[in-house]
Amino acid sequence: MNNLNDLKGKVCVITGGGGVIGSSLAAGLAEAGIVTVILDINEVAAVKVAEMVSAETGTASYGIKADVLNKASLEAVAEEIREKAGQIDLLINGAGGNSPKATTALEEITEEDLENLENSFFGLELEGFQRVFDLNFTGTLLPTMVFSREMVKRQKGVILNISSMNAYKPLTKIPAYSAAKASINNFTEWLAVHFAKAGVRVNAIAPGFFLTNQNRFLLTEETSGELTPRGKKIIANTPMGTFGEPEDITGTALFLLSDMSHFITGICIPVDGGYSAFGGV
Ligand code: NAD
Questions:
Q1: Same-domain pairing of 169 and 223
Q2: Residues contacting 176, CB < 8 A, separation 6+
Q3: Per-residue pLDDT, 134
Q4: At 60, which CATH number?
Q5: Which residues form the pocket of ligand 1, taking CB atoms under 6 Å from any ligand atom?
Q6: What is residue 217's predicted lDDT score, i.e. its pLDDT?
Q7: Atom 40 (ligand 1): residue with closest C-alpha?
Q8: Percent above pLDDT 90 for the chain
């Protein structure tokens, strides 16, 4: 198998499909003939992406409201998908993100900060950690439980999780997101082993740095569009010297979803312009 033809007509569920990376993946998958089901807690975004994808590619796409943290609602959605699109062949767990409540203002504690530690680790709220772990870890676990059961019964299917650079080395300020994404890599390996003889492959993609709504104003100045100090650090540590474009993820996703990668399971591929390969010097 040295082409993507096996993907034509397959049905792929994309959670968080209304977002920047999810919608770009949906468009790329549809171009390869994959029927996409865009699930998002933001129903307007899900429907809009599905309409755009089917209009631009001529491949069917369905936008459905779903909460990746509510198993009963996912089960109801699974039924709706079967009726509208047919059996689910592929799953991309794309819903994820960080929370300001789990983000420190300080990168590190210095002697000057000792009188007021509120901007450090000690000012974080448990609620923020819980939210970030729920969205990234439980939000991958539950859709996988619901949507992969039939893949296992049919002995065929592929699951693709979305990790992050933080899974390898945590970025300053975002401890919950970093740990939650590390758990995605670990879970990807665990499930890959568990499903290996059941014919279902489980892999992940770790995107490098992409400008999206969540991080745009952390990485670029709101008014001038210039890089912030954090944005400059990221670019300095990305050997290719730019942020990624969401479309950069499509090729790796198609490869991992197709039979071209039929002997690959339990890995995470960085799509990062060399960020994870660079030691910083
Ligand atoms: P995004 O915010 O544009 O998209 C995330 C989508 O998930 C949103 O549409 C949101 O409505 C949806 N969502 C949130 N909670 C949900 C829930 N409970 N149920 C269903 N949907 C829900 O973010 P993005 O940048 O496109 O990120 C997509 C994935 O890529 C995330 O897992 C993110 O952690 C990961 N990622 C992003 C970057 C980056 O630079 N943007 C880098 C590495 C990894």
A1: no
A2: 98, 99, 102, 124, 128, 129, 132, 133
A3: 98
A4: 3.40.50.720
A5: 15-16, 18-22, 40-42, 45, 66-69, 94-97, 135, 139, 162, 164, 207, 209-210, 212-215
A6: 77
A7: 210
A8: 94
